[in-house]
Amino acid sequence: MHYFAIKKGWLWCEGVRTVDIAKKTGTPVYIYSHRTLAEHYLKIDAAFSGTEHLICYSLKANSSMAVINSLAKLGSGADIVSGGELFRALRAGIPAGKIVYAGVGKTSEEIEAALKKGVSMFNIESMPEAERINSIAGKLCKKANVAFRVNPDVDPDTHHYITTGKKENKFGINISLAAGLFIRAHKKLKNLNVTGVHIHIGSQITKTGAYVEALKKIAVLISKLRESGLIITSLNIGGGLGIIYSNEKPSTPAEFAEKILPVIRPLGVRVIMEPGRFIAGNAGILLAKVTYIKKGENKNFVIVDAGMNDLIRPSLYDAYHNIIPAQPASGKMKADIVGPICESGDFFGKNRLVPILREGQYLAVMSAGAYGFSMASNYNSRRKPAEVLVKGNKFFVVRKRETYEDLTRGECVPGCL
Ligand code: LLP
Asked: What does DSSP say about strands 362-365 and 284-295: parallel, antiparallel, or unpaired?
């Protein structure tokens, strides 16, 4: 579900024609629909309305300030994985008490900053990390609320790069070792309040089976922990809800809740969840302009002004993104849609049947709102693109395109050269 639509051949975002944005901002440009972001958040919220819950939007999907702000206004919390994301979440108005902090490699500096700001919970991934947080909390005369991330060893049936809950993955504590570790931490690490269990089994998961399987294992773990005297009050089920890129049929939040809540409700815990892609993925597109049409011996290439530095998902995961013209076009041609970067992996789509395109026309790479800008880089010394947020029939540049000066900011050349 989203508010991008073709009307008489033109691609609109809510009440704004996307080419009108491109003419103002130039290309490449990310365009986000505020209404889509908000409705996705509210859909998840509604699905869990009968249960005590907190949605902590996963900033890594799209950490642009306007996006975080939009969600903060609706009451969202944040799932963060770095000092930088802590900074953004707080600056966007998310209260520290609604922030959960995950990640396998939190540094002492990051832990200290998060404790000082009073984040609601750390999702701990190993015993050494638990000991580190315990000692820093002690120095600050604080008690840290913590959950341990448990690796339930289930297969969510998604791309191997974004599978995180199998035992060969680096994440979480193996379920067979979890009880012992929780109990040790509870007994020995006096500056920790061990009150939560966290899982995150992967991303772009379209079926709920693996969640149910994982949660059943977690339910057994929670009863064991309670028998040993731990007071477990929260269960963080992570993110991972899949979206439609082409012909996937992901469960809706309501179907998802209906399947998992019967396993969770008897536990009497507060549910925390960390959706990223579900909220932002289909709320954004990357709009690019055709630079050249190159006819090869047995292949045509549509060369656009966006590259893998702007959106790396096709190159990195062979991810499929629908690509459509943003203005009326007719006829059909088969082509690879590629960027200007000096790598064969710099493509958005291969062997796509697209209308006959001309130089200067605009193309939209759809479903690019999550893991698009947030994974963008300056490779080939390309400036990061602009970002625009559309709300109704208005649009706002929420991030300016970088300048060439931005590219060398912070660099210095030693005087001896
Ligand atoms: N919570 C934790 C602990 C995570 O590691 C992630 C994502 C999320 C929540 C949010 O997952 P989501 O709801 O967005 O699936 N760059 C890849 C996706 C990497 C996901 C990393 N972790 C991609 O473009 O597909």
From this structure: antiparallel
Confidence at residue 165, expressed as pLDDT on a 0 to 100 scale: 66
CATH 1.10.20.10 fits 63-275, yes or no: no
Q: Can you list the residues of the chain whose pLDDT is less than 70?
A: 161-165
Are 78 and 100 contacting, i.e. CB atoms less than 8 angstroms apart? yes
Cα(241) to centroid(ligand 1), Å? 9
Which of 170, 274, 313 to probe ligand 1 with, by most ligand atoms within 8 A of CB? Answer: 274
Count the neighbouring beta carbons within 10 Å of the beta carbon of residue 141. 7
Q: What is the pLDDT of residues 313-350, one digit of tens each?
A: 999 999 999 999 999 999 999 999 999 999 999 999 99
* Amino acid, res. 300: N
**What confidence tens digit (pLDDT) does each residue in 255-282 have?**
999 999 999 999 999 999 999 999 999 9
Within the chain, all domains assigned CATH 2.40.37.10 are found at 4-32+281-407
How many A from CA of 368 to the centre of ligand 1? 14
Q: Is the CB of 234 under 6 A from ligand 1?
A: no
Question: Which atom of ligand 1 sits closest to the CA of residue 313?
Answer: 24
Binding site membership of 61 for ligand 1 (Cβ less than 6 Å): yes
Q: Which CATH superfamily is domain 4-32+281-407 in?
A: Lyase, Ornithine Decarboxylase; Chain A, domain 1 (2.40.37.10)
Question: What letter does residue 202 receive in the DSSP assignment?
Answer: B
Question: Which residue has a Cα nearest atom 24 of ligand 1?
Answer: 371
Q: Which of 124, 213, 131 is nearest to 171 (CA)?
A: 124
The boundaries of every CATH 3.20.20.10 domain in the chain are: 63-275
Q: Does the active-site annotation cover 141? A: no
Rounded-to-integer distance, Cα 208 and Cα 35, Å: 26
Q: Which atom of ligand 1 is nearest to the CA of 280?
A: 14
Q: What is the whole-number distance in angstroms between the Cα of residue 233 and the centre of ligand 1?
A: 24
C-alpha–C-alpha distance, residues 151 and 266, integer Å: 22
Does 162 contact ligand 1 (Cβ within 6 A)?
yes
End-to-end CA distance of the chain: 56
